[in-house]
TrEMBL record:
Record-given protein name: Response regulator transcription factor
Coiled coil feature spans: none
Keyword ATP-binding carried by entry: no
Keyword Phosphoprotein: yes
InterPro entries linked to this entry: CheY-like_superfamily (IPR011006), NreC/VraR/RcsB-like_REC (IPR058245), Sig_transdc_resp-reg_C-effctor (IPR016032), Sig_transdc_resp-reg_receiver (IPR001789), Tscrpt_reg_LuxR_C (IPR000792), WalR-like (IPR039420)
Residue positions, PTM 4-aspartylphosphate: 50
Species assigned in the record: Agromyces indicus
Ranges of residues in domain Response regulatory: 1-119
Domain HTH luxR-type span(s) in chain numbering: 141-212
Keywords, comma-separated and alphabetical: DNA-binding, Phosphoprotein, Transcription, Transcription regulation
Pfam family, one: Response_reg
Amino acid sequence: MAIADDALLLREGIAKVLQGGGIEVVASVGTADELLAVLDGDDLDAAILDIRMPPTHRDEGIVALERIRERGDDLGVLLLSMYATPEYALRVMGAGSGTGYLLKERVSEPQTLVRAVETVASGGSVVDPEVVEQLVRRTRADDPLARLTERERSVLELMAQGYSNGGIAQTLFLGLKTVETHVRSILQKLDLEESPEHHRRVLAVLTLLGER
């Protein structure tokens, strides 16, 4: 995988965490354009990008993600940000499956960062739990999420954080079949039509984020 961030020390820290989790880092660059050049020459499974990079330090990472998707590249892309910004998360997740949005502070949580990379590389989605918490608090009564039970809401929040059904079962101390039943119920209650599993899970997460 590749890492793009204009802060050299942070890139080195991310690389060390990933390598400790068994993930090979083949490129480390300082700008989004350099990352895109790397992707032109290498067949990678995933990439980590800072959202704010040179030259404007605004949304270069998200623009790079959108360019990657426009050209049909389905590699996993994990965006990092200093701030829990729901609007950024919506834009990132709007790029489809295989994308994620995490706060930079998660770099100090090796298991969280490694799991997030593995999730987007396999086509799943990840949203930082702090962003999820903010959005859940502002949910309106007429929101589709109001149809969910408290347990289903807990399952959806973990889906948003990139947990697999097995991971959700372990976290909530539930049986795998029980979790599968909850997931099916969530997708039905949110009126998500039958389609590939990862795609439906991304749509469910977008519902949580307020996109639909």
